[in-house]
Amino acid sequence: MAGGIKVTEPCPCGSTKPYGQCCGPCHGGTPAATPEALMRSRYSAYVLGLTDYLKTTWHPSTCPANLDLNESPAPKWMGLDIKKATATQVEFVARYKLNGRAHKLHELSDFVQEEGRWYYLAGTFPDATSQA
Predict the structure, then answer these.
(1) What is the tens place of the pLDDT at every residue in 9-60?
(2) N or C: where does the chain have the smaller number of CB atoms within 10 Å of the terminal CB?
(3) 16 vs 5, 8, 94, 121, 126, CA distance in Å?
(4) What b/e readout covers 89-122, taking b as 16+ CB neighbours within 10 angstroms?
(5) Euclidean distance between the first and final Cα of the chain, in Å?
(6) Domain count, the chain
(7) Which CATH number characterizes residue 55's domain?
(8) Which domain holds residue 31?
C-alpha cells in the first residue's frame, strides 16, 4: 500500500485498472514503459502525495530543488484525461479543486529516456495566453 491506497482500489490516474496493476508498480520502483505510463504514475503520485517518486522521475536538469506537496491550501486532484501521447510527449488535462473552486491544468509534457528510464523534462501550457 503506497500513499494510503490498496493495490485493489481503482488507480487514481483514471485507467480502468486497479492501482496494483497500473501505477503501483511504478511507485514501487519498476520503470514506466512509456511516457504516457510515466505521466499517469506522476499524476497518481500527486494525488497520493508521493514527493520522492515525483523527484525521482523528474529529469535532474529541470527538477526543482524544493517540491512541497503539503503546501496550504493543497489542491484536491479530481481526474486525469490524456488527450494525446506520442513517443516523447503527452498532452493531458488534470482537473482539481482549490479553495472549493474547480480548475484545470492543460499541459504538453516532454519526456526523455535515459538508460532505460523515462523522465519528465518540462511542460508547456497551450491554454496560457502570452503576456506582453
Answers:
(1) 999 999 999 999 999 999 999 999 999 999 999 999 999 999 999 999 999 9
(2) C
(3) 16, 12, 17, 27, 27
(4) bbbbebebeeeeeeeebbbbbbbeeeeeebbbbe
(5) 48
(6) 1
(7) 3.10.450.50
(8) 19-124
